[in-house]
Amino acid sequence: MTTWLAGLEERARAVLPAPVLEYVAQGARESVSTAEAVASWSAFRFLPHVMRDVTDVDPGVELLGRRTELPWGVAPTTLQRVVHPDGELAMARATAAASGLLVVSSNAGTPFAEIGATGVRWWLQAYLPADRTLAEPMLAGAVEAGAEAVVLTVDTPVVGTKYAVGESIWATVDPALVRVNFGPGHEERPGADKATDLGPHDLDWLRESTGLPVVVKGVLRPDDARRCVDAGASAVWVSNHGGRQLDRAVPTAAALPDVVDAVGADAQVYVDGGVRSGLDVLAALASGADAVFLGRPPVWALAEGEAGVARLHAELLAETVEALRLAGCRRVADTRDLLAAPALPAT
Amino acid sequence: MTTWLAGLEERARAVLPAPVLEYVAQGARESVSTAEAVASWSAFRFLPHVMRDVTDVDPGVELLGRRTELPWGVAPTTLQRVVHPDGELAMARATAAASGLLVVSSNAGTPFAEIGATGVRWWLQAYLPADRTLAEPMLAGAVEAGAEAVVLTVDTPVVGTKYAVGESIWATVDPALVRVNFGPGHEERPGADKATDLGPHDLDWLRESTGLPVVVKGVLRPDDARRCVDAGASAVWVSNHGGRQLDRAVPTAAALPDVVDAVGADAQVYVDGGVRSGLDVLAALASGADAVFLGRPPVWALAEGEAGVARLHAELLAETVEALRLAGCRRVADTRDLLAAPALPAT
Amino acid sequence: MTTWLAGLEERARAVLPAPVLEYVAQGARESVSTAEAVASWSAFRFLPHVMRDVTDVDPGVELLGRRTELPWGVAPTTLQRVVHPDGELAMARATAAASGLLVVSSNAGTPFAEIGATGVRWWLQAYLPADRTLAEPMLAGAVEAGAEAVVLTVDTPVVGTKYAVGESIWATVDPALVRVNFGPGHEERPGADKATDLGPHDLDWLRESTGLPVVVKGVLRPDDARRCVDAGASAVWVSNHGGRQLDRAVPTAAALPDVVDAVGADAQVYVDGGVRSGLDVLAALASGADAVFLGRPPVWALAEGEAGVARLHAELLAETVEALRLAGCRRVADTRDLLAAPALPAT
Amino acid sequence: MTTWLAGLEERARAVLPAPVLEYVAQGARESVSTAEAVASWSAFRFLPHVMRDVTDVDPGVELLGRRTELPWGVAPTTLQRVVHPDGELAMARATAAASGLLVVSSNAGTPFAEIGATGVRWWLQAYLPADRTLAEPMLAGAVEAGAEAVVLTVDTPVVGTKYAVGESIWATVDPALVRVNFGPGHEERPGADKATDLGPHDLDWLRESTGLPVVVKGVLRPDDARRCVDAGASAVWVSNHGGRQLDRAVPTAAALPDVVDAVGADAQVYVDGGVRSGLDVLAALASGADAVFLGRPPVWALAEGEAGVARLHAELLAETVEALRLAGCRRVADTRDLLAAPALPAT
Ligand SMILES: Cc1cc2nc3c(=O)[nH]c(=O)nc-3n(C[C@H](O)[C@H](O)[C@H](O)COP(=O)(O)O)c2cc1C
Ligand SMILES: Cc1cc2nc3c(=O)[nH]c(=O)nc-3n(C[C@H](O)[C@H](O)[C@H](O)COP(=O)(O)O)c2cc1C
Ligand SMILES: Cc1cc2nc3c(=O)[nH]c(=O)nc-3n(C[C@H](O)[C@H](O)[C@H](O)COP(=O)(O)O)c2cc1C
Ligand SMILES: Cc1cc2nc3c(=O)[nH]c(=O)nc-3n(C[C@H](O)[C@H](O)[C@H](O)COP(=O)(O)O)c2cc1C
């Protein structure tokens, strides 16, 4: 038997065209890191506590100083409107209903104002162009629409090569469904390409130009995490982009503990990649993450519309609460010494 | 060729209905811990002693100060009368004949008095309800029927989710075959649900209200073991409930040594989960357990009635004695340095 | 393509009856140690030396003070006359021609005098009976027939259980082909069973009653090795009896280094189990063995008669010499630091 | 989907006769080291840097003091003219066009002068004969034709045994396609066999008789690397000959770091074996190699002629540049701390 959660991708397969499915599933090159992500969380073993009062379990966390009811957020993903006509709006509504957090890609196909109007708590994810000033209107639009933070993705100076089977998604996508928060002709302007020279100064600039806290997404090294926090980042997001950038990048499950050691006292640390179940959530929290982000699962759930995303949050919450309870943890902070040492086979 | 012992589950398959078989075999969630239990004992390698006199080998052990002829006991399992009409009585008679120890589930389908009347040495396993006083009559009944200890199961604040294929056992079970040692209407009373707030104080209460030594079942962490012993437990039973509660819980084979280190000088330490052969018994004893408990094997054997359980004890004893002899060990205490270091692949 | 050496068992399959093949191949219980033996040598990786003069390579070794041209000997095996009518004599002649060493089982089907008459260098392997005096005539016969040492097998207080598929060899064997060096009716005498109380004193007794150096076969632990050497053993033979006694015993490849550390300065150390190729021989020598012994390969080769055994020695010698040369080693003593650390996955 | 690079061997399969394909692919004995080479690079995991300016990425390296645009060279391989009529000339032209480095086997089927005339930067690889003076004319010819260094292969005192399936290549090769840079009748002369007594003195002799820097190919041990450098080697080339000499030799990926530690401050260190992709190149550079060499891939590419080799360089360069960029490295020197520790499962 397979659970509703475990069947997400398979059900999406019945609904979505092949190029869309492939776009969502694919990893860079041989997809080693993509595949390993899922396996690396399930390699953790737990040492549950017993004889603790777990009558009331609270899975909620504080993210940048404000509480959400879910210990995960929705990671930014492009092409949500290609997956479902309601795209980011369905994602936003379902996430708002669950009192969760949504991170919206700057490639989104829905105007920020409409997303903000759903009442969801949201953060903007941004790629910066070579000419930073070209991003200013988009950033301003997000601020105006209520984004509470900016997530700067730093692992994508160029897009990692993927080996497409069959027709590429980009050959078929309706341009009206992508990057609608940029002015017309944006991509043709000189300097519109992704910046290849991001640096700590960009964090300053982002924070000052938006007035928002900055989260840096795509960090795997403790030294880089330190640089980010020293440059004013409020949080560091450990990610290898779902295995879509440098293949054979270390699993985030393996990278996380050193990043937490390096900056956990001074900033929040999030993690994404391969989280698929409540036990995975528990493993990530036990490894020291302040929260987890989900990339592909909400996209597959979106194939079933707002209801799909709502059910994703509900099912994962039920699994997570059961896992916390059986692990003898009343809240996320109680999970920190759950892992059997050594937690993970060296990679 | 397969041995009688190795063929236990397969033969049960020919006799028992599918939902019963599934109920016995299943683990929580993905059954990772259930599967790993068996593999983890067989991963141990031995460094046998030679040139020791092994003419007389004594496999017996002292359990809570009284000798049994077998270095294992029968772990508590629900639904024995569903597996075989003679249920707990067949289990008791065969175990008594082997001078072994039986642990009876508080969910048993046979009155304690009948079990006690077989003359078997037995312990009561209890789940405590939210309202502890509701358990008092059942506990008193067990004391009266000669239970020599109470085993408190602490790993089940809620029952771990299992994914049933086909009809669930609970849809078909005759209620007369379960929990007969509680008064009628017990489950409908407020406070009858399993307690979610067990704590050390419950050990005190149990010991005082029954006058029996208390064993805590379901401990995996050395710190919890310490808490139990400090609260007066006579023994700690390392168990992940056969993988039926928190999936991805550490194998008991991996958890055992640290628990022995933490409390072995002050209390007895037992272990269960995945023990299937004399070599598994040897590995568990060599890891420091004072005794081993068997969950599923006696249930499968029970499908062949009292004779099945008797043969289980006999076959396993023959294997264990041969293993001790070939390992150069005259008694259980001689097994302690048999394991090649590192004993177990880190998990 | 498979080599002549690698094809040994398969070719034997075409010649020998099933029960004989099974008798030779089988291990105790699940045959874990038997299977692992072969795998454990091939898990070693070499760090070959370069720019050393390997024009002349000498694979010979000194065994108990006398040189043999082969760095291995033939281990004792029962039922050689069942494998081939010429049995021990074919084994002896081929081994003599290669200037090798033969260890003859006390269960041999050929009179010691006939074996000695071939001119082969040979050692007697003995199991001692409960009543030691019953062994005296057999020991005296071996001394008279020129045995140069006694190998006492200490890992067999009882014979490890094997799971036979089909008819057991013992149901079919002609008793005239086994144990011909004992007087008639030997096995029926009281005290003729294998001793279960072997101890260091037996080494003394053996040495004194035969006047020969004593080798102890079946040692896996450094502490036991030490006891043997302190009791006067001239050599210790690291063996788990080809996996035929205690299953899940540590691979000899894993046990060897600690034994060499413990007694290598004071006595010779041999090893057997799973050696099948020149690279395996190299790995065993590099691990510190003074010589290697071969159990099953000579038996399979014997299915092809004296010529088979001769070819076994010749092929393995060619492989070993090539391996030594490519490893930059002129002699066995040069192999000691060839292994990449850590040499072997922990078991 | 498979990439052009990943499909190299398969496409060669459509063009080359079986014995040629087998000659190229084969490893010694069981081909363990050959197979493991590929797997060992892909076992590395990266900790990419972020927020570094990777606008301009320079993959070029200095080899013996002179810059090449590629961080790899073409390793010496015999029988190139059997693979393609243009043989070494096609290899040279394509490599020259890419501003790369070619190492030419002394077994080459093309006169050195013709190779030199292509303008390629090249080094001579030499096996020394027992009678060193027999090599002098060949060495002189190489010097005259512009070879910039001599690579002495030291892992081949004898050729490692391979198990050929079907007809051996040597039964079919036209002798005019091999070893054309030796005088006629060279192989029949006494002393023409490969030297089995190479030593440090040969490095002196080579350097003096050719006036060229000497590179030692086939080193796996740090102590040997040290001996080479102390004897005047300008570089040490970590290689197990593509697994074609001592099978079960350690993977070069495992051997490299210790060699770099031992001599990296005093000499260059190269590595070959199993490098098949840009990520493999990155792993080797990150492990401390000054450059990588490719054996089989250029041979398979040569089946498609000069264009094939040209495309090999171009595709691998694109992959390598992308890998460097995504790893946050502007140049090879930036790669040194990219590997997650422990980098490689112990072997
Ligand atoms: C289809 C898809 C589109 C993505 N688009 C973006 C994006 O626009 N911006 C971004 O920072 N990350 C993007 N990512 C990466 C995700 O934010 C996230 O890091 C990753 O998917 C996490 O791994 P998971 O999918 O295993 O949960 C995308 C991932 C996928 C699968
Ligand atoms: C069918 C079944 C029913 C069980 N019922 C109980 C129970 O009522 N009380 C309890 O403490 N443990 C119960 N357990 C857990 C066992 O006591 C024991 O911890 C576990 O089965 C040991 O693992 P093993 O089956 O691999 O030997 C049950 C296990 C099984 C398989
Ligand atoms: C068929 C067979 C018979 C054996 N008989 C004896 C024996 O009589 N005495 C003894 O000490 N060991 C005996 N052994 C064990 C061997 O001496 C040796 O320890 C073992 O076979 C080594 O492993 P290998 O077969 O993998 O080389 C026997 C082994 C086999 C396979
Ligand atoms: C077909 C073939 C021929 C080779 N001939 C030579 C040679 O003549 N001289 C030499 O030093 N190495 C020779 N080698 C070894 C290569 O130089 C190199 O060390 C090895 O191929 C590297 O491994 P790779 O093939 O996995 O890249 C040969 C290798 C192959 C595959």
What are the main properties of this structure?
homotetramer, 347 residues, alpha/beta, TIM Barrel, eight-stranded parallel beta barrel, two-stranded antiparallel ribbon, 13 helices, 12% strand, globular, disordered C terminus, binds flavin mononucleotide
Notes on the structure:
Four copies of one chain form a homotetramer. Chain A is an alpha/beta fold and 347 residues long. The first copy, chain A, has one domain: Aldolase class I (TIM Barrel). Chain A contains 13 helices and ten strands. In chain A, helix 6 links the parallel strand 4 and strand 5. In chain A, helix 5 packs parallel to helix 13, helix 11 crosses helix 13 and helix 12 crosses helix 13. Chains A and B meet through helix 13 of A and strand 7 and helix 9 of B. The structure holds flavin mononucleotide (FMN) (4 copies). The site of one flavin mononucleotide has 23 residues of chain D, from helix 2 and helix 12. The site of one flavin mononucleotide has 24 residues of chain A, from helix 2 and helix 12.
